[in-house]
Amino acid sequence: MHSITDLQQLVTKTLATKKYGHDPIELYEPIDYIMSLGGKRLRPCLLLMACDLFGGDIEKALSAAIGIEVFHNFTLMHDDIMDKAPLRRGKPTVHEKWDTNVAILSGDVMMVEANRLMMLVDDNILRPVLDVFNETATGVCEGQQIDMNFESRAIVSVHEYINMIRLKTAVLLGGLMKIGALIAGASQSEATLLYNFGEQLGIAFQLQDDILDVYGDPEKFGKQVGGDILSNKKTYLLIKALELATGDMLAQLNYWLNHNSADPAEKVNAVKAVYARLDVRQAAEAEMNKYARNAMQSFEAIHLPAERKRVLMDFAEQLLIREY
Questions:
Q1: CA pair distance 181, 198, nearest whole angstrom
Q2: Which of 96, 101, 114, 311 is the most exposed place for a label (fewest CB within 10 A)?
Q3: CA separation (Å) from 42 to 27, 223, 242?
Q4: Is 176 found in the same domain as 61?
């Protein structure tokens, strides 16, 4: 079994030497740029871990793993355009450094390249791998559109929110793990169990992200704490608070949601006070733990020795034990 560090080093080394095209330079230079911005490369590593779990040859899975990372960065490039984001990992976004048209077209080429890399798997599994990849990619786009739809809606249900994060975030984790399993020769039933593990883990991870945005230590979390509150983002905590609040508490919540010129610290503290009275944090943690348990149940159902599962299990535990 390979360690997470070994797999990260392999992915980083492979990406460092990869070129995506040469001419016209305006098309390919933005791809080299966004792919060089770094990150933990967890998604390609997870695909390789899934392959390794079933005793597969990770070299045979490497092209698909890089394809997943290219696809992920394609979504980031287009997300940045939609969000009008000026920075990505502390550097200018592609549409800021070049322009929006370049970012759209370069992103399109990245999607083509992701498919090309995915097609380098063995012919006998090409169809099922492409089916999983295309279904996953479609789900991510659906999740992004649903999230955008939420911006213009006053009321969003918890069920709708969970489905959105399942599509936008979690299906990618499930899909890439299933692809890794299929490359290793796992049965469809075992590959599906691993998909369920990844999907449920992804939902739990996003719910934890919602919690950390409000209650995390900014130095450990790596983001501005309270950012979701300031932007009125419809996270699990806000949706649950709107569901539970009545009378004065609902009036307070609506006041802060509509008070755009409020002092940032005052708004964050006031909304957190409402959350505390409604036990919203506890509800979010219970929901997160439910999906974490679902993930572990699927993982435990895979018929492999415990020692083979250890690396992936350790990773999952690290993912869900981030400090507040």
A1: 12
A2: 101
A3: 26, 18, 34
A4: no
Alpha-carbon distances, residue 45 vs 175, 214, 241, 297, 308 (angstroms): 13, 29, 37, 22, 16
Share in percent of the chain as helix, strand, coil (round to 5): 75, 0, 25
Q: Any idea what the CATH number is for the domain that residue 231 is in?
A: 1.10.600.10
Q: Is residue 134 part of a domain?
A: no
Instruction: Report yes or no on whether pTM surpasses 0.85.
Output: yes
* Number of Cβ within a 10 Å radius of residue 46: 25
Shared domain check, 85 and 199: no
- Rounded mean pLDDT of 175-185? 98
The band of 318, judged by pLDDT with boundaries at 50, 70 and 90, is: confident
Beta pairing, strands 87-88 & 91-92: antiparallel
Neighbours of 238 (CB within 10 A): 23
Longest dimension (CA), the chain: 63
- CA pair distance 316, 166, nearest whole angstrom: 17
What is the pLDDT confidence band of residue 256, given thresholds at 50, 70 and 90? very high
Tokens of 305: 């020795």
Task: Give the residue numbers spanning the domain of 210.
Answer: 142-324
Contact in structure between 48 and 2 (CB atoms under 8 Å)? yes
Residues 102-119 have pLDDT tens digits of: 999 999 999 999 999 999
Look-up of token digits 């435990």: 300
CB atoms inside a 10 Å sphere around CB 315 = 17
